[in-house]
Design brief:
alpha/beta; 2-enoyl-CoA Hydratase, Chain A, domain 1; Lyase 2-enoyl-coa Hydratase, Chain  A, domain 2; 2 domains; 11 helices; 10 strands
């Protein structure tokens, strides 16, 4: 098994664990990853974290298997067997109602980048290197990379990044808006856990609905979106978290939201 799943303290963890391939994807690992995501969906944690074991987050597609497919004169068939299931993975991540975090512990490329882009937050070790890599194999972006990237860093930066495929160090990726946080290598786990502690203290409905509103903003008209915002705010007002938030503000104290005490 190359994918491991763990639920601890209302945080779900998915570990990409095949260091010998730099956590590259093949049909088996994609199937295992899908099962892990479905388990997370069923468990309904506050936060899901996807990270890698070893020196890499994920190198993306398995180039060794691509070479074998070329040698057997069947590269298109190989891509047909891998790319659609990877697309299902990305859709699963995108549709999850709870907050998702890609904890980029090392090299992140190709489909690994695509996976990370569809998480709500991307944090990385200072030594991590991020690159698309598709163009270097005369391939085109997959795993929704060309969908998510221009939405995150803008079209101009996205086309430059995809066509020239530079290797961005973590701090460069942070400057370009690709990452949300960069942590020193020696403090990565500590700082990641502090970040997660902040996330799981957020009010459940308000944080999830905020995520949904942002997703819908790309397809709704302004009128449709304001209607959705109105309904969301009215629903939020009925939530015990709202009363706690208002009372805490008036009393000048930190809010202790009731929803954060559930399922722990």
């Amino acid at each position: 098994m190359t994918i491991h799943y763990e639920l601890k303290d209302n945080i779900a963890w998915i570990y990409l664990d095949d260091p010998t391939s730099l956590n590259a994807f093949d049909k088996e690992s994609v199937g295992e990853l899908k099962n892990a995501l479905l388990q997370a969906k069923n468990d309904d944690p506050s936060v899901l974290v996807i990270t890698g074991k070893g020196k890499a987050f994920s190198a993306g597609g398995n180039v060794k298997l691509m070479k074998e497919a070329i040698d057997s004169e069947n590269p298109a068939k190989y891509m047909e067997s891998v790319v659609p299931p990877l697309g299902e993975i990305v859709q699963l991540i995108y549709d999850l109602p709870f907050i998702t975090v890609a904890a980029i512990n090392g090299a992140c490329a190709g489909a690994g980048l695509g996976l990370a882009l569809h998480c709500d937050f991307r944090v990385a070790k200072e030594s991590a290197v991020i690159t698309p890599g598709f163009i270097k194999l005369a391939g085109t972006p997959d795993t929704g990379t060309s969908y998510a990237l221009p939405r995150i860093i803008g079209y101009s930066k996205a086309i430059d990044f995809l066509l020239f495929s530079p290797a961005w160090k973590a701090n460069k990726a942070l400057e370009e808006g690709l990452l949300h946080r960069v942590f020193p290598d020696e403090q990565f786990e500590e700082k990641l856990n502090e970040f997660l502690e902040t996330l799981i203290k957020l009010p459940k409905y308000a944080s999830r609905q905020t995520k949904l509103l942002l997703r819908k903003a790309f397809t709704n008209t302004l009128k449709e979106h304001m209607e959705l915002e109105k309904n969301s705010m009215i629903t939020a007002a009925k939530d015990p978290d709202h009363a706690e938030g208002v009372n805490a503000f008036v009393e000048k104290r930190h809010a202790d939201f009731p929803s954060t005490k559930q399922n722990n």
